[in-house]
Amino acid sequence: MSQPSTAYSGARPTVAFLGVLLLVATGACSAGPTTPPPPRGSSLERSPAPGGTTSLVFDFEQLTGSDEIVTSVRSTLGDASAVAVTLGGGAVRTVADRAGGTAVAFPTSTEVQTGARAVLRVSGPRAVVSGANFQYGVDVMYPQGSAGDSAGDDGDNLLQRGLFDGRGQLKLQVDHGRPGCRIAGPGGETLVAATQTLVAEQWYRLVCQRAAGAVTLFVAPLSKEQDAQAPTDLTWWSWSLPDRTGKLGSSTLNAPVSIGGKLNKSGSIVTSAPDQFTGVLDNVRVATLPD
Fold it and tell me: pTM for this structure?
Protein backbone atom coordinates (compact mmCIF):
# COMPACT_ATOMS: atom_id res chain seq x y z
CA MET A 1 0.00 0.00 0.00
CA SER A 2 1.05 3.60 -0.54
CA GLN A 3 2.04 5.81 2.35
CA PRO A 4 -0.89 7.46 4.13
CA SER A 5 -1.69 11.10 3.47
CA THR A 6 -1.39 13.62 6.29
CA ALA A 7 -5.16 13.93 6.63
CA TYR A 8 -8.38 12.82 5.03
CA SER A 9 -9.09 14.63 1.81
CA GLY A 10 -11.12 14.24 -1.34
CA ALA A 11 -12.05 16.04 -4.52
CA ARG A 12 -15.40 17.66 -5.18
CA PRO A 13 -17.96 15.10 -6.36
CA THR A 14 -18.78 14.43 -9.98
CA VAL A 15 -22.22 13.80 -11.44
CA ALA A 16 -21.15 10.45 -12.89
CA PHE A 17 -19.91 9.08 -9.57
CA LEU A 18 -22.97 10.40 -7.75
CA GLY A 19 -25.09 8.38 -10.16
CA VAL A 20 -23.17 5.26 -9.16
CA LEU A 21 -23.72 6.05 -5.46
CA LEU A 22 -27.48 6.45 -5.90
CA LEU A 23 -27.69 3.31 -8.01
CA VAL A 24 -25.94 1.28 -5.30
CA ALA A 25 -27.99 2.82 -2.51
CA THR A 26 -31.44 2.53 -4.09
CA GLY A 27 -31.25 -0.06 -6.84
CA ALA A 28 -32.91 2.46 -9.19
CA CYS A 29 -31.93 3.26 -12.78
CA SER A 30 -31.38 6.81 -14.01
CA ALA A 31 -32.61 7.88 -17.42
CA GLY A 32 -30.37 10.93 -17.66
CA PRO A 33 -27.36 12.74 -16.24
CA THR A 34 -29.25 14.98 -13.80
CA THR A 35 -27.97 15.13 -10.21
CA PRO A 36 -30.56 13.91 -7.64
CA PRO A 37 -30.90 15.89 -4.40
CA PRO A 38 -28.65 14.83 -1.50
CA PRO A 39 -30.09 12.90 1.45
CA ARG A 40 -32.15 14.97 3.85
CA GLY A 41 -30.00 17.25 5.98
CA SER A 42 -26.77 16.51 4.13
CA SER A 43 -24.40 18.55 1.99
CA LEU A 44 -22.74 17.40 -1.21
CA GLU A 45 -20.16 20.12 -1.76
CA ARG A 46 -17.98 19.63 1.33
CA SER A 47 -15.03 17.32 2.00
CA PRO A 48 -12.85 16.73 5.09
CA ALA A 49 -10.40 19.52 5.80
CA PRO A 50 -6.92 18.96 4.29
CA GLY A 51 -3.59 19.93 5.76
CA GLY A 52 -3.74 18.12 9.08
CA THR A 53 -1.10 16.00 10.80
CA THR A 54 -1.92 12.31 10.99
CA SER A 55 -1.17 11.09 14.50
CA LEU A 56 -2.42 7.49 14.33
CA VAL A 57 -2.86 5.03 11.45
CA PHE A 58 -3.74 1.35 11.44
CA ASP A 59 -3.77 -0.10 7.91
CA PHE A 60 -3.58 -3.66 9.37
CA GLU A 61 -0.55 -4.67 7.33
CA GLN A 62 1.64 -5.07 10.46
CA LEU A 63 -0.12 -7.84 12.36
CA THR A 64 0.84 -10.66 14.68
CA GLY A 65 -1.19 -13.80 15.29
CA SER A 66 -1.84 -17.21 13.78
CA ASP A 67 -4.49 -18.98 11.73
CA GLU A 68 -5.92 -15.63 10.60
CA ILE A 69 -6.60 -14.60 14.23
CA VAL A 70 -5.10 -11.22 15.19
CA THR A 71 -3.43 -10.85 18.59
CA SER A 72 -1.79 -7.46 18.06
CA VAL A 73 -1.14 -4.80 15.42
CA ARG A 74 1.31 -1.93 15.12
CA SER A 75 0.49 1.53 13.85
CA THR A 76 1.91 2.41 10.46
CA LEU A 77 3.55 5.40 12.17
CA GLY A 78 5.40 3.02 14.50
CA ASP A 79 4.77 4.39 18.00
CA ALA A 80 1.31 3.04 18.79
CA SER A 81 -0.01 -0.50 18.95
CA ALA A 82 -3.22 -2.39 19.63
CA VAL A 83 -3.93 -5.74 21.23
CA ALA A 84 -7.02 -7.88 20.82
CA VAL A 85 -9.22 -8.15 23.93
CA THR A 86 -11.78 -10.96 23.67
CA LEU A 87 -14.62 -12.70 25.49
CA GLY A 88 -16.84 -15.69 24.79
CA GLY A 89 -14.73 -17.12 21.99
CA GLY A 90 -14.71 -13.89 19.99
CA ALA A 91 -11.77 -12.99 17.76
CA VAL A 92 -10.45 -10.36 15.39
CA ARG A 93 -9.63 -12.07 12.07
CA THR A 94 -7.71 -11.04 8.98
CA VAL A 95 -9.59 -10.75 5.70
CA ALA A 96 -8.81 -9.24 2.31
CA ASP A 97 -9.45 -5.54 1.93
CA ARG A 98 -10.88 -3.99 -1.22
CA ALA A 99 -7.47 -3.43 -2.85
CA GLY A 100 -5.66 -6.73 -2.23
CA GLY A 101 -4.22 -5.93 1.20
CA THR A 102 -5.40 -6.81 4.70
CA ALA A 103 -8.40 -5.67 6.72
CA VAL A 104 -9.81 -7.04 9.97
CA ALA A 105 -13.19 -8.67 10.65
CA PHE A 106 -14.91 -8.67 14.01
CA PRO A 107 -17.44 -11.21 15.39
CA THR A 108 -20.49 -11.68 13.20
CA SER A 109 -24.03 -10.88 14.36
CA THR A 110 -24.63 -14.60 14.87
CA GLU A 111 -21.49 -14.95 17.00
CA VAL A 112 -22.45 -11.89 19.04
CA GLN A 113 -25.78 -13.51 19.91
CA THR A 114 -23.83 -16.38 21.55
CA GLY A 115 -21.70 -13.98 23.62
CA ALA A 116 -18.63 -13.54 21.38
CA ARG A 117 -16.81 -10.23 21.84
CA ALA A 118 -13.58 -8.84 20.37
CA VAL A 119 -12.14 -5.31 20.59
CA LEU A 120 -8.75 -3.82 19.72
CA ARG A 121 -7.28 -1.80 22.62
CA VAL A 122 -4.93 0.97 21.45
CA SER A 123 -1.99 2.34 23.42
CA GLY A 124 0.87 4.71 22.67
CA PRO A 125 1.68 8.42 22.75
CA ARG A 126 -0.09 9.11 19.45
CA ALA A 127 -3.39 7.59 20.58
CA VAL A 128 -4.66 10.94 21.90
CA VAL A 129 -6.20 13.82 19.98
CA SER A 130 -4.65 17.21 20.64
CA GLY A 131 -5.76 20.72 19.83
CA ALA A 132 -9.21 22.13 19.22
CA ASN A 133 -9.57 20.74 15.70
CA PHE A 134 -9.19 17.10 14.70
CA GLN A 135 -10.47 14.20 12.58
CA TYR A 136 -10.87 10.49 13.22
CA GLY A 137 -12.26 7.84 10.94
CA VAL A 138 -12.22 4.38 9.39
CA ASP A 139 -12.98 2.44 6.23
CA VAL A 140 -15.89 0.06 6.86
CA MET A 141 -17.79 -2.70 5.11
CA TYR A 142 -20.69 -4.76 6.42
CA PRO A 143 -21.22 -8.28 5.03
CA GLN A 144 -24.64 -9.16 3.70
CA GLY A 145 -27.26 -9.17 6.45
CA SER A 146 -25.22 -7.10 8.94
CA ALA A 147 -25.66 -3.35 9.24
CA GLY A 148 -24.93 -2.10 12.74
CA ASP A 149 -27.69 -3.92 14.60
CA SER A 150 -26.12 -6.45 16.94
CA ALA A 151 -28.85 -8.42 18.67
CA GLY A 152 -29.75 -6.95 22.07
CA ASP A 153 -27.35 -4.03 21.67
CA ASP A 154 -27.47 -0.32 20.85
CA GLY A 155 -25.50 -0.26 17.61
CA ASP A 156 -21.87 -0.80 16.63
CA ASN A 157 -18.94 1.26 17.90
CA LEU A 158 -16.22 1.47 15.27
CA LEU A 159 -13.74 3.79 16.97
CA GLN A 160 -13.99 5.51 20.32
CA ARG A 161 -12.27 6.87 23.38
CA GLY A 162 -14.17 7.50 26.60
CA LEU A 163 -17.55 6.24 27.76
CA PHE A 164 -21.01 7.75 27.38
CA ASP A 165 -21.33 8.57 31.08
CA GLY A 166 -17.75 9.83 31.43
CA ARG A 167 -16.34 13.35 31.33
CA GLY A 168 -15.66 13.16 27.62
CA GLN A 169 -15.97 10.91 24.60
CA LEU A 170 -15.02 10.59 20.95
CA LYS A 171 -17.05 7.99 19.07
CA LEU A 172 -17.72 6.87 15.52
CA GLN A 173 -20.66 4.46 15.41
CA VAL A 174 -23.18 2.76 13.15
CA ASP A 175 -26.67 2.61 14.63
CA HIS A 176 -29.46 0.86 12.71
CA GLY A 177 -27.32 1.08 9.58
CA ARG A 178 -26.68 4.82 9.92
CA PRO A 179 -23.20 6.15 10.76
CA GLY A 180 -22.81 8.85 13.37
CA CYS A 181 -20.28 10.91 15.34
CA ARG A 182 -20.52 11.72 19.03
CA ILE A 183 -18.13 14.17 20.67
CA ALA A 184 -18.70 15.05 24.32
CA GLY A 185 -16.73 17.23 26.71
CA PRO A 186 -17.04 19.76 29.55
CA GLY A 187 -19.28 21.99 27.45
CA GLY A 188 -21.78 19.30 26.48
CA GLU A 189 -22.20 16.87 23.60
CA THR A 190 -22.71 17.02 19.85
CA LEU A 191 -24.19 13.99 18.09
CA VAL A 192 -24.28 14.06 14.29
CA ALA A 193 -25.97 11.16 12.44
CA ALA A 194 -26.39 10.41 8.75
CA THR A 195 -29.86 10.23 7.28
CA GLN A 196 -28.75 7.54 4.84
CA THR A 197 -28.06 3.90 5.73
CA LEU A 198 -24.99 1.95 4.64
CA VAL A 199 -25.38 -0.69 1.93
CA ALA A 200 -24.13 -4.21 2.71
CA GLU A 201 -20.97 -5.38 0.87
CA GLN A 202 -20.06 -1.79 -0.07
CA TRP A 203 -16.93 -0.18 1.37
CA TYR A 204 -17.23 3.34 2.82
CA ARG A 205 -14.85 5.88 4.29
CA LEU A 206 -16.32 7.51 7.42
CA VAL A 207 -14.74 10.60 8.99
CA CYS A 208 -15.71 12.56 12.11
CA GLN A 209 -14.32 16.09 12.20
CA ARG A 210 -14.31 18.91 14.74
CA ALA A 211 -13.25 22.17 13.08
CA ALA A 212 -14.44 25.71 12.46
CA GLY A 213 -16.90 25.54 15.35
CA ALA A 214 -18.75 22.50 14.02
CA VAL A 215 -18.81 18.70 14.30
CA THR A 216 -19.21 17.10 10.88
CA LEU A 217 -19.72 13.53 9.70
CA PHE A 218 -18.36 12.71 6.24
CA VAL A 219 -19.35 9.55 4.32
CA ALA A 220 -17.92 8.46 0.95
CA PRO A 221 -18.33 5.14 -0.91
CA LEU A 222 -15.10 3.47 -2.03
CA SER A 223 -14.35 1.36 -5.09
CA LYS A 224 -11.69 -1.26 -5.83
CA GLU A 225 -10.15 1.04 -8.43
CA GLN A 226 -9.33 3.76 -5.90
CA ASP A 227 -6.10 3.84 -3.92
CA ALA A 228 -6.47 1.89 -0.68
CA GLN A 229 -5.32 4.61 1.72
CA ALA A 230 -5.58 7.93 -0.11
CA PRO A 231 -8.32 7.59 -2.72
CA THR A 232 -9.15 10.58 -4.92
CA ASP A 233 -12.32 11.74 -6.67
CA LEU A 234 -14.51 10.77 -3.75
CA THR A 235 -18.16 11.72 -3.45
CA TRP A 236 -18.51 13.00 0.11
CA TRP A 237 -21.86 13.36 1.83
CA SER A 238 -21.73 15.38 5.02
CA TRP A 239 -23.91 16.22 8.02
CA SER A 240 -22.95 18.96 10.47
CA LEU A 241 -24.02 20.57 13.75
CA PRO A 242 -22.50 23.37 15.87
CA ASP A 243 -19.81 22.20 18.28
CA ARG A 244 -20.47 22.75 21.98
CA THR A 245 -18.19 20.13 23.51
CA GLY A 246 -15.31 22.11 25.01
CA LYS A 247 -11.68 21.21 25.59
CA LEU A 248 -10.71 17.55 25.33
CA GLY A 249 -7.58 15.81 26.57
CA SER A 250 -6.21 12.84 28.50
CA SER A 251 -7.87 13.91 31.74
CA THR A 252 -11.25 14.15 30.00
CA LEU A 253 -10.97 11.12 27.74
CA ASN A 254 -9.96 8.77 30.54
CA ALA A 255 -10.51 5.42 28.80
CA PRO A 256 -8.35 3.66 26.20
CA VAL A 257 -8.88 4.16 22.49
CA SER A 258 -10.85 1.15 21.26
CA ILE A 259 -11.57 -0.23 17.81
CA GLY A 260 -14.63 -2.40 17.28
CA GLY A 261 -16.35 -2.08 20.65
CA LYS A 262 -16.45 -0.55 24.10
CA LEU A 263 -13.76 -0.73 26.79
CA ASN A 264 -13.89 0.45 30.41
CA LYS A 265 -11.19 2.50 32.14
CA SER A 266 -9.15 -0.61 32.92
CA GLY A 267 -9.13 -1.65 29.27
CA SER A 268 -11.55 -4.57 29.65
CA ILE A 269 -14.59 -5.16 27.47
CA VAL A 270 -17.79 -3.61 28.79
CA THR A 271 -20.12 -6.58 29.20
CA SER A 272 -23.38 -4.62 29.45
CA ALA A 273 -24.30 -3.23 26.01
CA PRO A 274 -20.76 -3.60 24.59
CA ASP A 275 -21.77 -2.11 21.19
CA GLN A 276 -19.83 -4.84 19.43
CA PHE A 277 -18.93 -4.06 15.81
CA THR A 278 -19.92 -6.88 13.43
CA GLY A 279 -18.31 -5.89 10.14
CA VAL A 280 -14.91 -5.35 8.51
CA LEU A 281 -12.58 -2.38 9.19
CA ASP A 282 -9.51 -0.90 7.52
CA ASN A 283 -7.44 2.30 7.59
CA VAL A 284 -8.18 3.60 11.09
CA ARG A 285 -6.87 7.15 11.43
CA VAL A 286 -6.66 10.07 13.84
CA ALA A 287 -5.42 13.47 12.67
CA THR A 288 -4.89 16.86 14.26
CA LEU A 289 -5.98 19.87 12.22
CA PRO A 290 -4.62 23.43 12.35
CA ASP A 291 -6.41 25.59 14.93
Answer: 0.83
